[in-house]
């Protein structure tokens, strides 16, 4: 592989160029891909992954990751629906779900930072616990929404574009700013690059981890509320496998599994690549069984690219 090709594949701008070329190729070869209806459907389909990727980016950049996001999304969706039904207030339901998601994230952060338990084990345990809570609270069944106003969270439109897409765009902007323009973002990248050096420089690494995971949990609640509104019920088995899709999107977008490197532009491109791959498979009527195989290969490709990037900058 020549140096120029390596730069194209591994560089931040190169990833964007590859995405544009792939988008153009798919637009020319796949029927109905470039229609307005399909484009809006594509954007809506990546909302859940995109929302979670905004904060998973910080977890990965800090040398951590969160495997409980899928379970937390389902749990918070259940909480939002059940609390709304119980109180008769959509606002209280949403508030309760946001608090529940943040508490799950806070729990992860405290266990990882203060008890020094590996993030893999902690979030794997939380994934099981929170999914179990969602199943127990609903007796394993979907919970219907009593107030039709809850549907409007996903069905409403602004300037012809569904509200969840605007929420996703706003979160991309906000967290892009946080990553690039705030002390929190700079400390996250520094901590992921060298935790001990960051600690010696005065960064409270433990509290940074707690804040990152709490924020991750809060954003899971946002995604869970939007998902419950879109599927018109609280589903205890929703978002199964979401964590792998989110991590794949982030790593495809240049977020390093070794920590210390992340860009919001790259994450957006990674999210869109995942969404387009799934959208194209649906348009071509590829069976769901084969789609699992494709997702697995995308995850392997993401890790391979991450290894190549790390090797290229001497961080293996």
UniProtKB/TrEMBL annotation:
Protein topology in the membrane: Multi-pass membrane protein
Principal subcellular localisation of the protein: membrane
Record-linked InterPro entries: ABC_transp_permease
Subcellular location: Cell membrane
Transmembrane segments: 14-34, 40-60, 67-84, 90-113, 158-179, 210-232, 244-277, 289-308
CDD domains from the UniProt entry: TM_PBP1_transp_AraH_like
The organism's place on the tree of life at top rank: Bacteria
Keywords assigned: Cell membrane, Membrane, Transmembrane, Transmembrane helix
Protein name, as recorded: L-arabinose ABC transporter permease AraH
Native source organism of the sequence: Nitratireductor rhodophyticola
Upper classification of the organism: Bacteria, Pseudomonadati, Pseudomonadota, Alphaproteobacteria, Hyphomicrobiales
Gene: araH
């Amino acid at each position: 592989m020549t140096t120029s090709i390596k730069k194209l594949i591994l560089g931040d701008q190169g990833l964007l160029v590859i995405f544009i070329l792939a988008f153009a190729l798919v637009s020319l070869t796949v029927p109905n891909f470039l229609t307005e209806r399909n484009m809006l459907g594509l954007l809506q389909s990546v909302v859940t992954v995109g929302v979670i990727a905004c904060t998973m980016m910080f977890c990965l950049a800090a040398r951590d990751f969160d495997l409980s996001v899928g379970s937390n999304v389902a749990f918070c969706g259940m909480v939002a629906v059940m609390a709304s039904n119980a109180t008769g207030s959509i606002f209280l339901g949403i508030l309760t779900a946001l608090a529940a998601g943040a508490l799950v994230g806070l729990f992860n952060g405290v266990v990882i930072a203060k008890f020094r338990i590996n993030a893999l084990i902690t979030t794997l345990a939380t994934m099981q616990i929170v999914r179990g809570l969602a199943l127990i609270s609903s007796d394993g069944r979907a919970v219907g929404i009593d107030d039709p106003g809850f549907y409007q969270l996903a069905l409403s439109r602004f300037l012809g574009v569904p509200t969840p897409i605007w929420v996703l765009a706003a979160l991309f902007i906000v967290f892009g700013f946080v990553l690039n323009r705030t002390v929190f973002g700079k400390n996250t990248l520094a901590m992921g690059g060298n935790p001990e050096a960051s600690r010696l420089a005065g960064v409270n690494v433990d509290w940074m981890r707690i804040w990152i995971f709490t924020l991750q949990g809060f954003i899971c609640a946002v995604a869970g509320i939007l998902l419950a509104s879109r599927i018109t019920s609280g589903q205890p088995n929703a978002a199964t496998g979401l964590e792998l899709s989110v991590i794949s999107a982030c790593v495809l977008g240049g977020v390093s599994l070794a920590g210390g490197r992340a860009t919001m532009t790259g994450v957006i491109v990674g999210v869109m690549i995942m969404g387009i791959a799934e959208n194209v498979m649906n348009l071509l009527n590829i069976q769901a069984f084969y789609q699992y195989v494709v997702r697995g290969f995308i995850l392997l490709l993401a890790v391979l690219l991450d290894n190549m990037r790390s090797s290229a900058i001497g961080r293996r």
